[in-house]
Design goal:
Blueprint lengths: L1 E5 L13 H8 L4 E4 L7 H11 L2 E6 L12 H18 L3 E5 L9 H19 L5 E5 L15 H11 L4 E6 H6 L4 H5 L6 E6 L15 H10 L5 E4 L7 H12 L3
Parallel strand pairs: 1-2, 1-8, 2-3, 3-4, 4-5, 5-6, 6-7, 7-8
This protein binds 3-hydroxypyruvic acid.
3-hydroxypyruvic acid binds next to loops.
Length: 256
C-alpha cells in the first residue's frame, strides 16, 4: 500500500509551516502527499521540500473550484485547468481532482449531468498530451456536502463513460461512498480502471481509519484485489496527534 498524506489535515497541528509538513510526512514513512488550493500555496517552498524528501505529489485539486454543473463556469474552469495541469507537471502530480459543484436550483438533474459531460469533454481536450488525468469526485451529501450534485459513484462513472476519454476518471473516496450507503464492490464492479485516486477516512468524525465503524479495510482489499494500484490518500482529520493517528491507520489498513 502506498500512502499519500493530505497535508491540509495531517501534520497541520504539528507544523504551521505548510511545506515543512512534507518533511514530517517523509519522517513518518509516507510515500506521497497531496493538498488543495495550490494557488494559495508557497509553490517554491513546496517544490523544494518535494525535491529534498523525494516524496511524490499524488494529486492536486484543479483550480478554480467553481460549479461545473453550471455551464457559465466552464470557460473559467478550463482556463484554470490549463494552469493546474502546468502546475501538476511542474510538481510531478499525475492526477488533478475536480468537484462537480452544487445541485443548482431551477435546473433538472439531466441538464446538470449533461453540463458535466460537456465540460469534462472540453477538459479532456485541455489535458490531452499532458500526462495528467482529471478525477471527478463524488462526495457525501448527508454530512459534509449538503447540496452537492454528485453523491453517487455510479453516476460519476456514468459521466466518465459518457465522456469516454482517457483523461477523465473519478476519485473514489471510500469515506464519502460508504457514508452514502454504497457498497464498494457493487458500485465499482467492472469499472475499477476508471478510478484515478482513492481517499480514506472513518465515520463518524471523518477521523483516521480505525477510529470509527466503516469497513475501510474490506473496501481497500477489494480495490487492490481488482486492479487498483495507485496511492491511498489519507484525507482525514487526526483525532489527536498525526503520529498516533497514523499508528491507528496502519494497524487498521496495514502498513506498507
Ligand atoms: O471536499 C471533500 O470533502 C473532499 O473529499 C475533497 O477531496
Amino acid at each position: 500500500m502506498k500512502y499519500s498524506a493530505c497535508i491540509e489535515w495531517l501534520f497541520a497541528s504539528e507544523s504551521p509551516d505548510f511545506a515543512n509538513r512534507i518533511r514530517l510526512a517523509r519522517d513518518a514513512g509516507l510515500d506521497a502527499i497531496e493538498f488543495w488550493k495550490w494557488t494559495e500555496k508557497d509553490i517554491p517552498a513546496v517544490e523544494k521540500a518535494l525535491a529534498e524528501t523525494k516524496l511524490s505529489l499524488s494529486s492536486l485539486v484543479a483550480e478554480p473550484m467553481i460549479p461545473l454543473t453550471d455551464t457559465a463556469s466552464h470557460d473559467a474552469f478550463l482556463v484554470g485547468l490549463r494552469a493546474s495541469a502546468e502546475m501538476a507537471n511542474r510538481l510531478g502530480a499525475k492526477v488533478l481532482i475536480a468537484q462537480a459543484g452544487d445541485d443548482l436550483p431551477g435546473r433538472t438533474r439531466a441538464e446538470q449531468h449533461q453540463a458535466l459531460v460537456d465540460c469534462l469533454g472540453h477538459a479532456a481536450d485541455v489535458l490531452a498530451g499532458t500526462g495528467v488525468v482529471l478525477g471527478l469526485e463524488p462526495l457525501n451529501t448527508l454530512i459534509d456536502h449538503k447540496g452537492y450534485f454528485l453523491h453517487s459513484t455510479v453516476e460519476g462513472l456514468d459521466i466518465v463513460d459518457e465522456v469516454n476519454r482517457p483523461e477523465i476518471r473519478i476519485v473514489y473516496d471510500i469515506y464519502h461512498s460508504l457514508v452514502m450507503g454504497e457498497d464498494t464492490a457493487n458500485v465499482l464492479k467492472d469499472r475499477i480502471d476508471r478510478v484515478a485516486h482513492v481517499h480514506v477516512a472513518d465515520h463518524p468524525g471523518r477521523n483516521e481509519p480505525g477510529s470509527g465503524t466503516l469497513e475501510l479495510s474490506k473496501s481497500l482489499h477489494w480495490l487492490f484485489d481488482n486492479g487498483y494500484d495507485g496511492f491511498v490518500g489519507l484525507e482525514y482529520r487526526p483525532t489527536a496527534d498525526t503520529q498516533s493517528s497514523l499508528a491507528t491507520t496502519f494497524r487498521t489498513l496495514g502498513s506498507h
